[in-house]
Amino acid sequence: MKKNKLTVAVVAGIAGVAGMANAAQYINPEGTGQVLIYPYYSVNNDLNTLYSIVNTTADTKAVKVRFLEGENTLEVLDFNVYLSAFDVWTGALAPTVSTIAGHQGEPSVVHSTADTSCAPFLIKGGQEFLPFTIDVDRDPTNRSMRRATDGHFEVLEMATFDGGTVPAADHGVVGTPSNCAAIEGDWADNGIYDTLADEAPVTGGIFGSATIVNVAEGLAMTYDAIAIDEFWVNAAGNHSEPGSLLPSLNEGDLESTVFNDGVAVTSLYGSGAEAVTGLFTRGYIYNEYALDTIVNGKSEWIITFPTKRFHVDVPTAADVVPPFTTIWDGANSCHEFELQIWDREEQFEILTVGGVSPRPPAGANPSLCKEVNVVEFMLPGGAPGAESSIMGSDNLVTVTTPAVPHATENGWARMSFSNPLYVTAPLAGDAFAGLPVAGFAANQFTNAGAGAGLLAQYAGLFEHKGLVVVSN
């Protein structure tokens, strides 16, 4: 296999687990892997989202690109991309109005690309997001394409190739695949990749990034995709046809490895999705906020549960899979959190019912009810809106910073998932307390005094920090 095994070997050495270099998926700190998780996209509030996928290897690869709406992680667009050696794929998401029957006029998303890499059947000039999974969700009153205007996306490597697919996908000296029609035709005749039929094991080595852009305001906020390596058992892969909902995060290795205080901990789960959940589960996450009034500061945290659907979109409440506890009812699957806030002058406040909007029932902690959630920080006295001020999301919880006169504008916060029921359920190895979280803090600033006739805008993203908590 043409990949660097150094990180896995180090993990294996620390953990003392024989043979782990060939098993146990893990988040690769080097940033490359077999699966990429992009925690957020948005086309609300005049935003576009641009993304890239990079093949760092000499292998020709098939990857599945999958966009998932922000309420229940339902697929709204899937397609295959065939990356030649050292190739890059890029695409962009922009707002549109749906033209699809039953959804005409609803806010939606269009995907477009000028990339020449082979993507069979994809309308590169503009492919609308599709409503088919939303249309069969539980609540018939919550099936608008507005749900898809923010969410997250993932990329899964499905196979490498050692035969006819390699020259067909190769760009040569002209920069265009020599025979994409052959790849597309192999799927078109019977839905099976059997004419070329040259799949080989996956080798990893892909990485990616995304940029959330507001062209009108001159803003760009960029992050790196989270890379999962050793996802596939024995690197087998699953080369599915374009448009298939497979492969999914549920098909990976049943073992996953995380670091706890610098020590690698491997746990065995009953499903691949639970193993991925174990990778992301944190008891606490930490980040900053900055609401400096002199530059009209805005701060939002993106809280994404990338595997939530596998746990909560189940037949009955009794089937909900830990660490989640509440079934998806077609509109919500709510899970409590606690928020402790410190400003930069050590003023401390625990979020109370009066400091959050929408307010939970009396005596309850605030909750995150969607797959992608936006937590917007506001100064005391601020008026919550229906949508967040940076990302334009309506999957929104608003919190108020400490009401201390001399130091309310900036600081940091700790979000805790301390419900004792929020615990993973491995078959063997350690269980982890908390919920599986990915995301970042987004800050936006406006300098109205930049100069005569000038308006300077600034923005930045900061990935969440977290704490792995081993449960007894």
| Percentage of residues in DSSP E strands | 35-45%
Percent helix among the residues? under 10%
Structural class: mainly beta
Low-pLDDT stretches? 1-22
How large, in whole angstroms, is the Cα Rg? 22 Å
The tally of beta strands, per DSSP, is 32
> What separation lies between the terminal Cα atoms?
38 Å
Global morphology: globular
- The average pLDDT score comes to 91
Q: How many alpha or pi helices?
A: 5
For the largest beta-sheet, the strand count, sense and barrel status come to:
9 strands, mixed
Care to give the gist of this entry?
With 472 residues, the chain is mostly beta strands.
How would you sum up this structure, described in words?
This protein is mostly beta strands and 472 residues long. The protein has 2 domains: 6-251, no CATH class; 280-471, no CATH class. 8% of the residues lie in helices and 38% in strands. It contains 5 helices and 32 strands. Strands 1, 2, 4, 5, 9, 10, 13, 14 and 15 form a 9-stranded mixed sheet that branches. A 6-stranded antiparallel sheet has the order 8-7-6-3-11-12, with no helix packed on it. Strand 4 (61-69) and strand 5 form a beta hairpin. The chain is globular and about 70 Å long. The protein starts with 5 loop residues before the first helix and ends with a strand.
